[in-house]
Amino acid sequence: MQNSLEESTVEYLDRSGALQKLIQDCQTRAEIESRQDKPSAVFRFVLTVDPVDLVNFDSTLGNLVLHYPLDAGRIFQDVVYLSIKALDLIPQVESRNQILVHLSIPTLPSLPSYSLDLRDLSCQAVEQRYFQFEGIVSSMTNVIQYTQSARYQCPESGCVGSEPYIYIRLHTAGASESRTIRPDFECHYCGNILEEDVSCRVLADKRVVKMMDPAAIPGLSWSPGAEGIPTIDRCRGDITMSIEANSIVKHVVQPSPSVALPDSVARLHQDRLGSPYSFAASLAFAFASSVSPPGAYHKLKLSMLLSLVSTHSNDKSKDGGGLHVMAVGSDTLLLSRLLTYCTAISSRCVHHTVDKHLFAKVTKDTHGTGTCSIDAGSLLLSHGGCCFLGDLGQMKKDVQSSLQGVMEKDAVTVQIPKKYEDSGVLQSLELPIRCSIWAYTDPNTCKKPASIAAADLYLQQELGNVSKTLADCFSLVCYMDGTSETGDMYAESLLVEDILNCAMLEEEDLENVSELLSTEDIKQFLQVACCLQPQLTPTAEYLIQGYFVSSRRLRSNNIQSCPFPPTALRTLTAVACAHAKLSLRTYVAEEDALMSIYLFEESVTSRYGYSILGIQPTPHFRHGNIVQYLGKENDTQMEHFHLQLLRLISSHAQDLTLRQPEE
């Protein structure tokens, strides 16, 4: 049986090309050994074995790898040793104990018995074989070393155990350090305590990682996956389970392209083909109608939809984060409900609360490694999704300052104390932030003194306890309170108006977009829109760059100057791409760039009370019927805005030229 399995192993390695790679590795190792004064005690080889392919080739050998991996490892160890000796590949190899074979398992059969549910993890119920499990990495230690192999020998010169390669300890999957290195190993021949040849000890790097079940955070259904062997250690009455990862696969979250557009959205899209703006505006009008009536908080709803479609961006660039949105309004209860509704729409979202840490926390590792553990905060756990911060004005000033630094760099800096470093040098790690950040604040929580307010002539809207520099880090800042009426009264008037309009209309006139689109339809539509990767057209790029250059020059030199963030160019491009996806376009059209500029200019105007394009902020719409709002008047307004923008660019950005499209 043993010989039959070894023959099958050799044939499989030959068929898969692993045998040829093994020969090449041995030749490389032999050259290295020939230049060394002292030969190595252990030679490590990595063999990639596909269990599914192996089962099809030899079911017995495949079953051994899947269910008895330690026994299978010894079979492969024997095969590698015999191959080296038969072909005389490495003269320094004298014993099979010198061969350390690691079987790399890229995948497991797609069957329930090979999946390990972290919620049902039990030391008594888990077999010592390969399992596949999914989880969210919530913390990890710094890189630490473990003993991969060590050589022992008996101190009695006449004992068989004194020979060089009789006692070689090899690390096995999931085993603790005490399994490999210990001062009380005894000689099997004479009973003496073995002595270690420290010069032959081989070290390797590892991390201890904590994983959470995806169900622990609502919406986080995609996460890293891995194959590993559970190992149980019983030491001094304590029982611990450890799983050493054999193969780690990072699941890049990609919306399924096979999802079809809902019928209701498809009909709406077909009906709005006559206008390049109408479809996206219709979605915003209908969005979250159960939280606020159609028309109320319209610009905030449109901004949230843009942020949602940019959450799963396929952009691999360093600026591939999301669109950050901050809502400013006195009705914080409704703002909280609206943003909470958006978290339910999002496929992945972390709702940050005060009992959690926002960035990252460094603590002492509890597994006896002597190093530190880096616990991920809400921003890191939101990777590829969104993070809802709640009321930003309630955060402490030092937290706001740290948040500003994180959003400016798109990264969290983690400082590891000197006591956890072997070199004694303070180490810092940069962990990238790839999520959309949502927040709201009440502008009335912090009133400025009259002297400061009089000196700040062009600041028409307050930010409450949030600094202006932190607000500049958000892609879109949406002001919900009108300049002539308070936010509470205005939103309430819209609600009353919507109820009265519905009561007076006939039954056939009550059909509007908000009743046609359900929450599930919106979710399904977002999955389709997120799959799109629109390309920026030259005309759209020209408008965005022209507006950016003109605004920087005009606002900085004019008597009515106001700050214009340097990150505006990146924000304008991201909003234009998001609007193209929201409109189900495969390219960023001129109209997408116009809407991006319009929204950004409206946000700047709301903050500083001055628009270089004559825009009047309108956070809400009073129209009870969407047909009135989405008529030809909207396109005419955007055409007029387009002409104003072109005049602005021709006056203040004459040096810009339109890039010709590539053939």
Read across the widest sheet, the strand sequence of neighbours is 13-16-19-12-20
Question: Judging from the principal axes of the Cα atoms, what is the shape?
Answer: elongated
Structural class: alpha/beta
Uncertain spans, ≥5 residues at pLDDT below 50?
Answer: 219-225, 314-319, 450-460, 623-629
In short:
Plays an important role in meiotic recombination and associated DNA double-strand break repair. The protein is of the alpha/beta class.
Characterize the structure shown.
- Helix 3 (51-57) packs antiparallel against helix 4.
- It is built from 22 helices and 22 strands.
- Mean pLDDT is 81; it is low at 219-225, 314-319, 450-460 and 623-629.
- The strands form seven sheets. The chain has a five-stranded parallel sheet with strand order 13-16-19-12-20.
- Strand 14 and strand 15 form a beta hairpin.
- The protein is of the alpha/beta class and 663 residues long.
- The protein is elongated, with a radius of gyration of 32 Å.
Topology summary:
Elements: H1 2-16, H2 18-34, E1 43-48, H3 51-57, H4 59-67, H5 69-87, E2 99-104, E3 131-134, E4 136-141, E5 144-153, E6 167-170, H6 177-180, E7 195-196, E8 202-206, E9 209-212, E10 225-235, E11 238-249, H7 263-271, H8 278-286, H9 298-311, E12 325-328, H10 332-345, E13 349-351, E14 360-364, E15 372-376, H11 378-381, E16 386-391, H12 397-409, E17 411-416, E18 427-432, E19 436-441, H13 450-455, H14 468-471, E20 476-479, H15 487-504, H16 513-516, H17 519-530, E21 535-536, H18 538-557, H19 568-582, E22 587-588, H20 590-608, H21 626-629, H22 632-652
Parallel strand pairs: 1-2, 12-19, 12-20, 13-16, 16-19, 21-22
Antiparallel strand pairs: 3-10, 4-9, 4-15, 5-6, 5-7, 5-8, 10-11, 14-15, 17-18
Helix pairs in contact: 1-5, 3-4, 4-5, 8-9, 9-17, 9-19, 18-19, 18-20, 18-22, 19-20
